[in-house]
Write a structure and sequence with these properties.
The protein has about 170 residues and is mainly alpha-helical. Helices cover about 55% and strands about 5% of the residues.
Length: about 170
């Protein structure tokens, strides 16, 4: 007699204590949709950069008496505020991928980063994925070339981190 769990029959050979097979409903996200998500994330990050720069210039303007006197401290504070944005960029990706599996751009186009079994990726995989993602972008997007022939459209960041980007639409 086949195994049962909560009144449902399990496929032959699958025990009630064994994790189910990856959902058949997972569909890889297309490259075009992922490119749109990348551009949208660039717009979001660019908007945050403008906020950081505006705050830096405002404090610079106020701390130098509207430009009437020099203040090295004000200049360095402005530099540190803009450098704070550089710390914000990885946090934006890592926190959102670990928390929701989606950045704001990915939410807009209805794609999500998951493990191949459909589960959340967690902080460790999000950090690893971001590091390889940043290197892929830095080196002329070459890390995304494997997505052209991979059945699941996985680029180097996905292959290294063991993730896949799925279409939720």
């Amino acid at each position: 007699m086949p195994s049962q769990r909560a009144g449902r029959h399990l496929p032959p050979g699958q025990d009630a204590g064994v994790a189910p097979a990856p959902p058949a409903t997972l569909r890889p996200a297309g490259l075009g949709v992922r490119a749109v998500a990348f551009v949208l994330d660039g717009i979001v990050l660019g908007s945050f950069l403008m906020v950081f720069v505006a705050l830096a210039l405002l404090q610079l303007f106020l701390r130098t008496d509207t430009g009437a006197r020099d203040s090295d401290a004000a200049v360095w504070t402005a530099v540190y505020m803009v450098m704070g944005w550089l710390a914000f960029v990885p946090l934006y990706h890592i926190v959102l991928w670990a928390w929701r599996g989606q950045t704001i751009g990915q939410m807009a186009v209805h794609v999500r980063v998951v493990r191949p079994d459909g589960s959340d990726i967690g902080v460790g995989r999000a950090v690893l994925r971001w590091i390889v993602y940043a290197l892929s972008v830095l080196f002329l997007f070459l890390g995304f070339v494997p997505a052209l022939w991979d059945d699941w459209r996985r680029g180097l960041p996905d292959l290294v981190a063991g993730t896949v980007v799925i279409d939720l639409a």
